[in-house]
Amino acid sequence: MTWRAWVLAAALVAGAPAAAHGQLFLASRPHPAFAIGPLFVRADVTPALGPVLVEVLFSVAVPPARSAAGLEQDLHLLWPTAVSPAPGSGPPDAGLERYVTARGYTVIESGRLALGAQHLYGDERSRVPLDGGAPFVTFIRDAGPLGLTPPATWVRIPWDPRFVNRTFLVSLQMQARGLLKAKPDTWVERTLWGPRHRMVLSFNEVRHRAVFPLYLEHRDRVVPLAEDPAQLLIDFAEAERLKIDELTPGAARRQLSETRDSTETVTLFLDRSEGRAAQALTVQFGYFTGLQSWAPVLIPALFFVLGNVAAVLVRTAAERLSRRLSGRLQFGRAAEPPRVRQTGTVLDADTLARLKPGVTTYDEVLALCGREVEESRRVGAAADRHLVYRGRRLVPVRRRVFGWLSTVGHWDVEHHEVDVTLDRDVVRDVQARVRRSRLQAPAPE
C-alpha cells in the first residue's frame, strides 16, 4: 500500500495549483459522530504584506439525535503553511514533535497558538482564553520521492466543553507565513502600478505535498462540514490604496466591511454539497502609493511632453552623436570611393586649365569658378583686380573592419587657394597653392 499511496500523492500534487492554502479538521478517533459548523476562516492583509494574521472560528455541531456525552476528544488542524508561536503561550508539545518525526518529517518550529472561546452575544472583550493554547509543530519533508516540500503545520486543539455549546465559537489565532505570493512583473509595472500579490485560501485542500501523507493516513478521521454557514474571508486594510485585479471563483463577493473602517472584505461561502472537494478563494491584488494613483493621468501627459519637447532634445543629441560617429565610422562597399567633406570652393585641374591669361575675361572667370570669391583691388591701380578662391577638403583614410563597416584611421586635410589677377577685366596671372595636413578626427559639423 505504501508505494500506491505515494503514486496517488504524486498524481494529486502534479495537478495542484501553484499556491493553495487551506485547512482540514481531523478528529482523534475514526469516523467522528459530529461535524464542524459554523466555520469562519478570516485573514487580515495590510500594506506591510508580512505574515498574515489568520483567525479560525468554528463550533462542533452534534446531530440532534445524538448526545454530546462521550464525544470529548482533541481536534487536529492541518494547515499547509508555516506559522509563528504566540508570545508567552507556553512550551512546545514534545509528543507532537515525536509524532511527525516518526513519520519521516523534520520539525522546523514548534510552540503554541492563541486559543479561546468567543461568545456569540458578546463583543471582542468576551473572548475567553483557553489555558495552554493549541500546541503545534511546523514541519517539512526533505527526503522522499518528491524531494523537499514546503512547510506545513499540525495543530492540536485540546477539547473544551464550550466546543459543543452553540452560544460559543472557538477562536484559533495564528500568524501564517507564506500565504502571500509575489506575482512576477516588470520594473515598469512595479514603478507605475506597484507590486502585485496573490493570496489563496481554501478548504479541504490536501494536495499539498507535506499534508497529503498525513491526510491519507487519517482520512477516516476527517471531520465534515455541518449544514451551518461556512465562509472564507479576507480583509484588506487601507482600502483606498487597494487595487484588486482578479477574483475567483465567480461566486466570491467583495464589499466594504460593515464593522471596520477603510477595509474591503472578500468572501466565499463554502458549498457543503461539494463534499471533500477543495474549494478555494483566490485574490490577485496590489497596494499603490498616492503618486501611482495618478498614473492614468500622468502617463498620457508624460507622453505628450515627450512628444512635443523631449523629442527635440533627443533628436538634437542623436544628430550630434551621428556627426561624431561619422568621423570614426563609415558604411559602404569597399569599391566605393571615400566620402569627402568639402567646404568653400575647391577648383580642380581642368577648371584651372581653362583660365587662360590674356584671353579669359572677368565674367568668364565667375562663370567657371563661381561667385563665392574674395575680390580686391590695389590702391592706385584701378585697372588691377584680384580674385581669391579658398576651399578645404577632408579625405578619410579607411580601414575595412568587416562587411560594409569601415573605421577611419585619420583624415588628410587639403587647403586650396587660387589667386587670379586681372588687368582691365582680363586674366593676367593665375596662382594655385595647396597645403596638406593630417587630423585624427574632424570637428563635428
Structural commentary:
This protein is α+β, with helices and mostly antiparallel strands. The longest helix is centred in the C-terminal third of the chain and has 32 residues. The protein has 7 helices and 23 strands. The strands form 2 sheets. It has a 17-stranded mixed β-sheet that branches. It folds into 2 domains: 287 residues, no CATH class; 110 residues, no CATH class.
Task: Write the SSE topology.
Layout: H1 2-14, E1 22-27, E2 35-45, E3 52-61, E4 75-79, E5 82-84, H2 94-101, E6 106-119, E7 128-129, E8 134-140, E9 152-157, E10 168-177, E11 180-182, H3 187-193, E12 196-203, H4 212-217, E13 230-237, E14 242-248, E15 253-256, E16 263-269, E17 279-287, H5 295-326, E18 329-331, E19 341-344, H6 349-353, H7 362-369, E20 374-376, E21 384-402, E22 405-423, E23 426-439
Parallel strand pairs: 1-12, 2-13
Antiparallel strand pairs: 1-4, 2-3, 3-10, 4-9, 5-10, 6-7, 6-8, 6-10, 8-9, 11-12, 12-17, 13-16, 14-17, 15-16, 18-22, 19-21, 20-21, 21-22, 22-23
What attributes characterize this protein structure?
7 helices, 2 domains, 6-stranded antiparallel beta sheet, alpha+beta, 445 residues, single chain
Instruction: Please give the alpha-carbon distance between the first and last residues.
Output: 85 Å
The portion of residues assigned to helices is 10-25%
Total discrete domains: 2
User: How many DSSP E strands?
Assistant: 23
What is the 3D form?
Answer: rod-shaped
Number of helices: 7
- Main β sheet profile: 17 strands, mixed
Strand content: 35-45%
Order of helices and strands: HEEEEEHEEEEEEHEHEEEEEHEEHHEEEE
Mean pLDDT: 83
Radius of gyration: 44 Å
Class computed from helices, strands and strand pairing: alpha+beta
Please mark out the parts with pLDDT under 50 across 5 or more consecutive residues, or reply none. 1-20
